[in-house]
Write a structure and sequence with these properties.
The protein is mostly helical. Helix content is about 65%, strand content about 0%. The protein contains 15 helices and two strands. A two-stranded antiparallel sheet has the order 1-2. Helix 5 runs antiparallel to helix 6, helix 7 runs antiparallel to helix 8 and helix 11 runs antiparallel to helix 12.
Length: about 375
């Protein structure tokens, strides 16, 4: 009996030590802002079995450190430690409902799909007593994202815009939301919001390269407002973008900033390692991980490049057709608010709020100006 107790004690002590050691190292890396080290350590322990309590402590650390790479942060929610736990049971219940909703979307049953997405959003918020925890932001925003898509598919564009407005800029698909918000605004004939969404996608936080469809909507609206000079400039820019793609002049790191998921990886490449952190993650491990990230981004770029070029060709063709039309008489849209703080030429963008933190302004732009079209008489 004594020997059995000794064996159990040794096994238990070893397990506690392993857990404590991992958590301690992760905390040290976090305190030193060593995001690359954190990423590697988490990946190494992805299949390690921890207690649910330990898993949750790690999760809270990761959810506050998207700079380690959102792929690693999101993956932790599927880590081995929660298999068979009450957390996994709730997750399985939500997953089942969301999968049912996805199938309804594919079957064009958008209203029924919306109801299921909404049920998950409401239940998850109720379980959090009305306040979504930071560690659950990504999940909650993703459900809202699907709700917005379901409303858009029902042609409830204004309702979709309202739901999209609930999603914060730190959502990992924030730029995609802005893209969809742009289309919803355009379909609702809210040209101010549509152009604002384009400006938000083009925020300095992101890549200067937009999804080609963003340029298409911009062309639609510029034509609608009779901004012929801006339309000509946009065509010239698209031709330059296409040329840069064909001659490999596109900056890979800048292109990777097209969405937050890839951008979170690019940031790691430029990090400098605190020397004292090498005892937790070696220089070789760090070099190997950086190479893996570069290969991942390069592969994604090469697969998307021909598709982007094809889309740009089509959009340039439409833009040239729109620019050459002689009939510039269009109905006025509702006059948009002026701003004395902005220049009178061209079209300008301005944050919708006066919040000082620039990151909070992503997705909060509106178009300020008025149509230049000749009114019908």
């Amino acid at each position: 009996m004594k020997s059995l107790f000794a064996v159990l004690l040794i096994l238990f002590s070893s397990r506690v030590f392993a857990e404590t050691n991992f958590l301690y190292q992760l905390q040290q890396l976090e305190q030193n802002k060593d995001n690359l080290g954190m990423r590697i350590l988490v990946k190494k322990n992805y299949k390690t079995k921890f207690s649910v309590g330990e898993w949750d402590k790690v999760r809270k650390i990761l959810k506050g450190n998207y700079s380690i790479g959102l792929d690693a942060v999101i993956a932790w929610d599927r880590q081995a430690s929660i298999t068979g736990s009450s957390i996994a049971a709730v997750s399985t219940e939500y997953t089942k409902t969301l999968e049912e909703a996805d199938k309804l979307m594919l079957a064009n049953k958008f209203s029924e799909a919306f109801d299921k997405y909404q049920a998950v959003a409401q239940d998850s918020k109720a379980k959090s007593r009305g306040v979504i925890e930071k560690s659950n932001y990504q999940f909650y925003y993703n459900v809202l994202h699907q709700m917005g898509r379901a409303l858009y598919s029902q042609k409830k564009f204004n309702d979709a815009l309202e739901v999209y407005s609930w999603i914060k800029p730190n959502y990992f698909q924030a730029r995609q939301v802005m893209f969809e918000k742009m289309w919803a605004s355009f379909m609702a004939k809210r040209y101010d919001l549509a152009l604002g969404a384009i400006a938000s996608q083009n925020s300095g936080y992101f890549s200067k390269y937009l999804d080609p469809e963003s340029y298409l909507v911009q062309i639609y609206i510029l034509k609608r407002l009779c901004y012929t000079t801006q339309l000509d400039k946009l065509v010239a820019y698209l031709k330059k973008y296409k040329s840069d793609l064909q001659t490999n002049k596109v900056n890979l790191k800048d292109w990777a900033r097209a969405d937050i998921l890839r951008f979170s990886l690019v940031q790691i490449l430029d990090e400098k390692t605190p020397p004292e952190m090498l005892k937790y993650v070696s220089a070789k491990e760090r070099a190997d991980e950086k190479n893996n990230i570069i290969k991942l981004i390069q592969a994604k770029y090469q697969s998307e490049k021909p598709v982007i070029i094809d889309q740009i060709n089509r959009i340039i063709g439409y833009a040239l057709l729109a620019a050459n039309e002689n009939n510039k008489i269009l109905e006025n849209i509702n006059k948009l608010p002026d701003s004395k703080e902005l220049s009178k030429t061209g079209f300008e963008f301005w944050p919708a709020s006066d919040r000082e933190e620039w990151f909070d302004e992503i997705g909060s732009h509106v178009f300020i100006g008025a149509t230049k079209c000749v009114s019908k008489k």
